[in-house]
Amino acid sequence: MSDTAAAQSYARSRRGATLDRLHRLLEYPTVSAEPRHAKDMNACAASLARTLGHIGLRDVRICPGRVAPVVTASWQGRREGPTVLVYGHYDVQPVEPKNAWTTEPFRPTRRGQYLYARGASDDKGQLMAHLAAIEAWLTTSGKLPVNLRLILDGEEEIGSPTLLEAVARRWPPLFADVAVVSDTWMLAPDAPVLISGLRGVLGARLEMTGPARDLHAGAFGGAVANPAEALAGLVASLHDKTGRVSISGFYENVRPLREKERLRLGRTGPSDRAMLAPAGVMNSYGEPGFSAFERAVRRPAVVVADLQTSGEGRTVVPARAGADLNIRLVDGQEPENVIRLLRRHLHSRIPPGVRGKLVIRSRCPAYKLREDTAALRAARSACRSVYGREPVLLPSGGSIPFVSALAASCPIEVLLLGFGLRDDAIHAPNERLYLPNLYRGTKVCIELYEQLGGVPIA
Amino acid sequence: MSDTAAAQSYARSRRGATLDRLHRLLEYPTVSAEPRHAKDMNACAASLARTLGHIGLRDVRICPGRVAPVVTASWQGRREGPTVLVYGHYDVQPVEPKNAWTTEPFRPTRRGQYLYARGASDDKGQLMAHLAAIEAWLTTSGKLPVNLRLILDGEEEIGSPTLLEAVARRWPPLFADVAVVSDTWMLAPDAPVLISGLRGVLGARLEMTGPARDLHAGAFGGAVANPAEALAGLVASLHDKTGRVSISGFYENVRPLREKERLRLGRTGPSDRAMLAPAGVMNSYGEPGFSAFERAVRRPAVVVADLQTSGEGRTVVPARAGADLNIRLVDGQEPENVIRLLRRHLHSRIPPGVRGKLVIRSRCPAYKLREDTAALRAARSACRSVYGREPVLLPSGGSIPFVSALAASCPIEVLLLGFGLRDDAIHAPNERLYLPNLYRGTKVCIELYEQLGGVPIA
Asked: How far apart are CA A447 and CA A454, in angstroms?
């Protein structure tokens, strides 16, 4: 039996234990955006650190971040071999609206082939495939085919504000030859996807303030400027009637979609129907002249993610109103430039009687994979051996701030090979993981580490 | 010592006990808009019923309402005298944003001459003046100068949906000669106001729905219609750039503001500065051509009281977004007609890819006092004797649904004589009552009952 076959056989025999471990990991309510979960973040990090030691990794560390620690570990055994950076994140999105969940978000529940819990797919379930693969290699062979550096981020969902610095301090100067990230999706359980690009993201909050306090809607309504009404006007000004972004200059530096790329996206990407039906959407809507998939992966967008006021259901003229803007950027768009354009757009439109403030919470540029590299060939080969087919190269509309930052800071190859499905309901109620993807994902990781062992050192 | 003087003297000696009773009343979190407080509503009603029996009223009843009971009681002693209906409400507005409160909203706290608590001014503190006056009369003389019917509403803040029916069942057919309501404001502690009109109100909720669930903002942003963006567009369409309501026909039947009335409002009503400074507002904003006070009391308004989405802080394309609209109506505007105009306005503006729904939660027309009646003369006389001056007749921008309903159903006179101040922060954090107003309000009520004893029977 080859080393790989032994690792595969071991992983298969440990599926129950891996699933138990995932259950326990999902029980931590690791919502990085909510300060009240600081204790849970620390407890989860401590538990992960114990797991990493247990599966045989060394030099396990818990490094403080802005709101949650990053857990790192390594395995250094091949003096001549390449170093692979594996990245995952254990923080999750908030669970609201909580009453839309069929079962408790932090009490993982199995129904059929699915495991339901916040973080089941994004990203605890996917990072677990790597931990299972590492354990299989280290238990059966006592070594890994590559030198490995593992990063488990606790701040991905809030833009990983300090991670790159922390990692650069931990492993200077150039800290890996290849990075592997499993935090993306497949077209189907047997149709792997290697992500060829990610959109960048600008997380911004527009805050309007008016009266010093909430005012009785009867006593003051109609006589004072209302920040909720002003906010609605500003938010409405961000798009024209067709759904195109109205911010002057927004599309200026966007790399155009060439006919060849368009044909490829049309052939390999999902149809409007395939993409939208699971989301309960009949027709795509947005910038005219593009398919739903093109809009989502190759065109920028200004998404109004939330609106709130200080009124909170009372009959008042609210003192404050706010909008969460989530701006997705594509190749060619500089975050700083888009912030400047947005500020200019808003500034000229603030009505009298209210004050406006734009707070930038996170920013990262788009990411684009270099094609035809040794790392990419290794990923293709791993997929061939597990799925019997090569991965489709497709861009994703999502963003992974650390990947963009990593790619911008050094010439590292980043393999984005994920095990989620597009109907996993990530960021939404009833998030789930298709369990066969966890097991097959583990298999791919075992094979991928083996294949990456042959990648030349940078 | 006259009967009135004895009652006044007794009330003065009982100030401490009255304040204790108010403290206990304020401790019940009687938020009628929040179903989780159903038990508190019942407990508060039961406690009030005990108090009413204790102060000497008879025929105390707790009648179930839609979400909270109404407590009624009466005193029937003057076969030839007029019947006075006294109305107050024990339900309160929600306390959000809770962290803006200096002290707990349901733990009444005294600071200087003020008592801070939700409901301190609106309306528990004001109704307490009536209970103290009733107690003083019944204890000292064993009778009241009028036949009294008392209504303590538990659903005022949600529009008193069933109260009129309940009361009509309780006391058919015409149930009083005069009504007295203390749920309004004074210009200053020594400047009483008799409200000459109330605005009507339409409580409506605009709900937009899009995708079947919240969608990841990266995976779908830019490719699907966003209900939050659609909502912002619709909300923004309700006003033009000057702050005037843009709903076609909205101002059509509004009774115009004549020069004479305008002069009177200018002379007796607050200046822009006096009205807005306590609210932390520099300049009035709204329909052009009117002062702040005119806008608030004599012109209709569409107030956006709150905005929400199902996103609640996550980075998603939200599945749902909603706006609470609080529309204030004036003399001449029919609620049903305004609903029709609003529906037509919204219907023609809903963008593709989302669905819109308008839910009407409450409605009542404006109310206008008939001037120069015996009841009005009684109120003037009571104010002269307590404050040394007559009350100023002023319209209010607020709405009391039961008053509008009452006035529409029978030719009863309604005296709106309140003890709140315009900076009591009602409906807002840190609501308070100026305690001298409670004591002087009690004095006015004692005197007013006496004066109303001479009003002819309808």
From this structure: 12
